[in-house]
Design brief:
Virus Head Decoration Protein, Chain: A; 111 residues; 7 strands
């Protein structure tokens, strides 16, 4: 008896929300600029990335929110959900936020 067993591994990024209460998010267009492809050639912007108003990843005073979910931008810019208010687990973000970014995100409480 033969069968073809394809094994595929999936990656789930860590939860970044401390709580869903008081969460406010808006739609944003996530840019594909400066995003490198992974081993499979996919360009994925990870959950918890700090985004500027143009949808690019930043870590400075131009940040307007935090990406709520992973977004695949392999085929170009894609829509995503941008958290602008709520409680976030800072240690679970892909990059530690700079003090300028924390100051810019006035309605986000970092835990």
């Amino acid at each position: 008896m033969n069968f073809n067993a394809n094994v595929k591994q999936f990656y789930t990024s860590p939860e970044i929300l401390a709580t869903e209460k008081n969460l406010v998010s808006f739609t944003v267009t996530v840019s594909d600029s400066s995003i490198s492809g992974n081993a499979e050639g996919k360009k994925v912007v990870p959950r918890g990335s700090l985004l500027a108003s143009d949808g690019t990843i930043k870590n400075d005073g131009t940040v307007i929110g935090i990406l709520a979910n992973d977004v695949d931008v392999t085929s170009g810019p894609q829509p995503g959900s941008l958290i602008v208010e709520g409680y976030i687990l800072k240690d679970r973000l892909p990059v530690k936020p700079a003090q300028l970014a924390i100051d810019a995100l006035k309605k986000i409480t970092f835990r």
